[in-house]
Amino acid sequence: MTEEQSTNKERYELRRQEKDLVRDSASKKRTLKRTAMWVLIAGALIGSVFAVYNYGGSSGTTAMIVDAVNPTDRVFGIFDSKIVLIEYGDFQCPACAQYEPIVQQIRTDYVGKIAFVYRHFPLSQHKNAKITAYASEAAGKQGKFWEMHDMIYDGQNVWANLSDDKARDVMTKYAETIGLDLKLFEEQIDSGEVKNKVQSDNDGGLKAGVNATPTFILNGKKIQPRSYDEFKNFIEQELAANS
């Protein structure tokens, strides 16, 4: 091979390498641009989710149109109070049971100041949600809704995984414990009136946009307090606004 041929070959090889470098550089730039674009999109999506979460969180409220308090409601406190706190609950819902000590404290601390309303929203995945709701309403027919309500939540881990019949037996034992007429209780737990009441609460919740339990609505605004203090802050704000 002559010196000239060797030089030409080297020049050709250098040009090829330069082209490869240019092509690789362009490819890397395109990859970086695509990566940057997806990072920006991902960041925007995360920001959106975070914003929605915050809006629904402890510092946010969402307006909800719910049925006004009526004579069939289970109300603890002043029936015609200007401050109405509604809970849509499911007796078999673990989150509802976790909230219950806080809710009981709120009921105690604000008795005479607010109306606390419990409405049934039994979820389909909870097999004993309806029978426990019926039991509370049957107890309510004898003036002991709240006693049964509290006992059912307190014993959730006892009956939650039982068969229908055994869960009902537990409800009967609770009825006996709180001093109900058992014959009347057994009649009322199966009555159309009791079942219609539970269904009516559920239908009203669906109409209002309830889709989970517990859902708390304070004077027409959905709130999501994570502690007693946050609950208290929401209520105190409403009391101040309506004083």
TrEMBL record:
It comes from the Bacteria. PROSITE patterns: THIOREDOXIN_2. Residues 44-240 form the Thioredoxin domain. The keyword Transmembrane applies. Pfam families: Thioredoxin_4 (PF13462). The chain crosses the membrane at residues 36-56. This is Thioredoxin domain-containing protein. Keywords: Disulfide bond, Membrane, Oxidoreductase, Redox-active center, Signal, Transmembrane, Transmembrane helix. PANTHER family: DISULFIDE BOND FORMATION PROTEIN D (PTHR13887:SF14), GLUTATHIONE S-TRANSFERASE KAPPA (PTHR13887). Belongs to the thioredoxin family. DsbA subfamily. SUPFAM superfamilies: Thioredoxin-like. It comes from Candidatus Yanofskybacteria bacterium RIFCSPLOWO2_01_FULL_42_49. The keyword Signal applies. One of its GO terms (molecular function) is oxidoreductase activity.
